[in-house]
From TrEMBL:
It is an enzyme of class 2 (transferase). Belongs to the purine/pyrimidine phosphoribosyltransferase family. This is Adenine phosphoribosyltransferase. SUPFAM superfamilies: PRTase-like. The lineage of its organism: Bacteria, Pseudomonadati, Pseudomonadota, Alphaproteobacteria, Sphingomonadales.
Length: 178
């Protein structure tokens, strides 16, 4: 399956969540068995040479892709969640959004000191959430080998922001515009 075929499986919803935004909905790609397999295979091709110890997925669709990628690579999976979703002791990081703040958390000790991790999510826009997740992982002693996404919105600068922060980043599909 070509990149154009994968791209065609992503539904665009105009004016969501607010007027002027073109929301890129990956759920239509996830529902297509061939498309999902192709996406995970392409992500695995990028990730395999890095030989990460763990795959770390950002809530929520990063869980889907991260877990599938972990299985494909024979690696473990660690979720990074929104605040208050994990039982037990957690470590977290607060970060700034366009209008307010948010918090990401993971279980304390879930990522061993020195672990080489691959950070995964479905989409990169401005990069705020991925930057926060990478910082949280670094604070736990992990080395973030790369942040890998299904979709990039390059006009919003997320991959450039990650790279400026020292995190290699890549995406399988790119959509111009926001």
């Amino acid at each position: 399956m070509s990149i154009d075929s994968l791209t065609a499986l992503v539904r665009t919803i105009p004016d969501f969540p607010k007027p002027g935004i073109q929301f890129r909905d990956i759920t239509t790609l996830l529902a297509d068995a061939g498309g999902l397999r192709e996406l995970v295979d392409r992500m695995a091709d990028v990730a395999r040479p890095l030989d990460p110890d763990l795959i770390v997925g950002i809530e929520a669709r990063g869980f889907i892709l991260g877990a599938a990628l972990a299985l494909s690579l024979g690696k473990g999976f660690v979720p990074v969640r929104k605040a208050g979703k994990l039982p037990g002791r957690t470590v977290g990081i607060d970060y700034v959004l366009e209008y307010g703040t948010d918090r990401l958390e993971m279980h304390e000790g879930q990522v061993p000191d020195g672990a080489r991790v691959l950070l995964v999510d479905d989409l990169i826009a401005t990069g705020g959430t991925a930057l926060a997740a990478a910082q949280l992982l670094r604070e736990q002693g992990a080395s973030v080998l790369m942040a890998l996404f299904a979709i990039d919105l390059p006009d919003l600068g997320g991959i450039a922001a990650l790279e400026a922060d020292g995190v290699a980043a890549a995406a399988i599909i790119a959509f111009d515009g926001d």
